[in-house]
Amino acid sequence: MRFDEAYSGNVFIGSHPNYKESQVVIYGMPMDWTVSYRPGSRFGPGQIRKVSIGLEEYSPYLDREMSDVKYFDAGDIPLPFGNAQRSLDMIEDYIDSLLKDGKFPLGLGGEHLVSWPVIKAMYKKYPDLAIIHMDAHTDLRTEYEGEPLSHSTPIRKAAELIGPHNIYSFGIRSGMKEEFKWAKENGMHIAKFEVLEPLKKVLPKLAGRPVYVTIDIDVLDPAHAPGTGTVDAGGITSKELLASIHEIARSELKMVGADLVEVAPIYDHSEQTANTASKLLREMLLGWV
């Protein structure tokens, strides 16, 4: 994949034409090879780009315009269909290259397993890395029906790599009893059901540390984001998620990268979910870089 040339397909609105001059690289990880319920998130990155044309380029929340940040849309990593391990290796190699060039990686999924190789690459550069994880699900399984490469495992893999005490999960409302037990016994922070208020309490503890944020769109209630593979009732509102993004923007974190995953447009013909994701991405760009 060439990431020093402008992507020839749909691009996220306002994308800068020059890779070398850009602070941020937006890239897609179109993989849904391991999902256990509904596939389709591999089409998420393209749909988020497509609907971004409807965005205003000014954020009244942050009083910034998209032209204030130079970001380059590199398109999707050409992942080999059905080959999970090779896909993960390609993602990790790609992030290694971005970090070597001093870029802020901003990824679009794809299923949540794609965050795992990104975190591996991040940890190689930032050994004191902390992760903020917003999701409906714990994602702390070691395997799913005997398969260790599963969208239900990335946070467990990350916790075993960087230490459970360096993982901060928010909005969690679904998972096996054993997952919650493991998290509690191993010092991992899990805030059930809500994001904003528990996040406010955690952010001062992470001041100055390199932080990677991974957001699964299903942290939102299905009323706000029906277009995802594993919907789960009882989630937060889009207003709360936006407020949480802005709370991070006002903090003293050293943001080093982020991703937004699990948008599956086939289940949302109104394009509500992709439009929400597009706006979230705008606020992440303007608030975290």
Automatic annotation (TrEMBL):
Q: Name one Pfam family in it.
A: Arginase
Enzyme Commission number(s) of this protein: 3.5.3.11
Q: What InterPro entries is this protein classified in? A: Agmatinase-rel, Ureohydrolase, Ureohydrolase_dom_sf, Ureohydrolase_Mn_BS
Q: GO: which molecular function terms?
A: agmatinase activity; metal ion binding
Cofactor annotation comment: Binds 2 manganese ions per subunit.
Q: Which UniProt keywords apply?
A: Hydrolase, Manganese, Metal-binding, Polyamine biosynthesis, Putrescine biosynthesis, Spermidine biosynthesis
Keyword set includes Amino-acid biosynthesis: no
> So where does Mn(2+) get bound?
112, 135, 137, 139, 216, 218
> What does the record give as its pathway?
Amine and polyamine biosynthesis; putrescine biosynthesis via agmatine pathway; putrescine from agmatine: step 1/1
Catalyses: agmatine + H2O = urea + putrescine
What cofactors does the UniProt entry give for this protein? Mn(2+)
Function (record text): Catalyzes the formation of putrescine from agmatine.
Q: What protein am I looking at? A: Agmatinase
Lineage runs:
Bacteria, Bacillati, Bacillota, Bacilli, Bacillales
